[in-house]
Amino acid sequence: MSAVPIDVESRPGARLLLLLPALALLLLFLVVPMFSVFRTSFFPGTSSMGATGFTLSQYARFFSSTLYNSVLLETVAYGIIVSVGCIVLGFPVGYSLARMPPAKRRLRMILIIVPLTLSLVVVVFGWMVLLGRQGLLNNLLLALGLIEAPRQLLFNRAAVLVVLIQQFLPFMILSIMNVVLQIDPVLEHASTSLRATRLTTFRKVVVPLAAPGIVSGFTLVFVMTVSAFVTPRLIGGARTQMLGGLIFDEVLTTMNWPFGAAMSFILLAVGLGVLALVNMLVVRRITRGLHVR
């Protein structure tokens, strides 16, 4: 007996049935735990065990501290800088991959995806070996005579930015490539035939059409950057503070779950606000460009 196919288009209820397993998983393992953490952020005191009541003291403690506010701003700054850096480095790669023949593209995509298969801890320790005082980079600079003594290349903001960009660059490349694949090259040829320069074609044709991929890549990289704590801790040391590391300390070291939960939702709210602002600016820019043309 052959199976009877389900006509999803003519039966809206079938769509809901197909979505139910995924919705149930999201509800059980994401929405319910997030609501529990959100409720914990309003507990008074420093422990959630047997705590009752409702207070904004945890949020007031955060916003009344210069230290926490500066760490929050620095975390957002890291997210924006890393995201923009990934766009600058990833767009040429993603565009070139999209314009390659499928056979060549497949091989190069493997090279881009391979770093994602490695453990984050392995990647970070590899960078520590590379940037250490007796590491490969210092030895190379000494051999070339560019420095007279080993330099401290670790435990600074620049090292953290470089490592974070290297970790999240593949996500930006893949996001941009998938969108550029859907852009018909005929549009670029038409722009050139109308005597537009390559820069004008790139700015007025390619970038607006690739904007969804840029925004999705920015969103992925930004979210992963602001929530990172392994890389800043090991590469940046005590000199580099990000909110993810402070949340980790509050939850697992001092066991102050209410304050850690409050910081988590502050980071979530600020992150969503930044992403909403970026999306609004991109949509406005595209709309304005369409009206101008």
Description:
It is a multi-pass membrane protein. Residues 72-278 form the ABC transmembrane type-1 domain. Belongs to the binding-protein-dependent transport system permease family. CysTW subfamily. The chain is mostly helical and 293 residues long. It has one domain: MetI-like fold, CATH 1.10.3720. Helices cover 74% and strands 0% of the residues. It has helices at residues 12-40, 57-63, 66-98, 102-113, 120-131, 136-143, 157-180, 185-193, 198-226, 230-236, 243-253, 257-292. The longest helix has 36 residues, at 257-292. The relative contact order is 0.13.
Kindly summarize this structure in a few lines.
The chain has 293 residues and is mainly alpha-helical.
Topology overview:
Elements: H1 12-40, H2 57-63, H3 66-98, H4 102-113, H5 120-131, H6 136-143, H7 157-180, H8 185-193, H9 198-226, H10 230-236, H11 243-253, H12 257-292
Key terms:
293 residues, mainly alpha, MetI-like fold
Q: How would you sum up the global shape?
A: globular
- From the alpha carbons, calculate the radius of gyration and give it in angstroms: 24 Å
- Please tally the β strands and state the result: 0
Q: What do we call the CATH topology?
A: MetI-like fold
Biggest sheet architecture:
none
- Sheet-strand content, in percent, reads under 5%
> Which secondary-structure class do the elements indicate?
mainly alpha
Taking the alpha carbons of the first and last residues, their distance comes to: 58 Å
Let me know the average pLDDT.
Answer: 88
Tally the helices: 12
The CATH superfamily label reads: MetI-like
As for the number of domains, it is 1
Please state the second-level CATH architecture: Orthogonal Bundle
What is the CATH C level class, in words?
Mainly Alpha
- Give the proportion of residues in helices: over 70%
Low-pLDDT segments = none
- Tell me the series of helices and strands, N- to C-terminal: HHHHHHHHHHHH
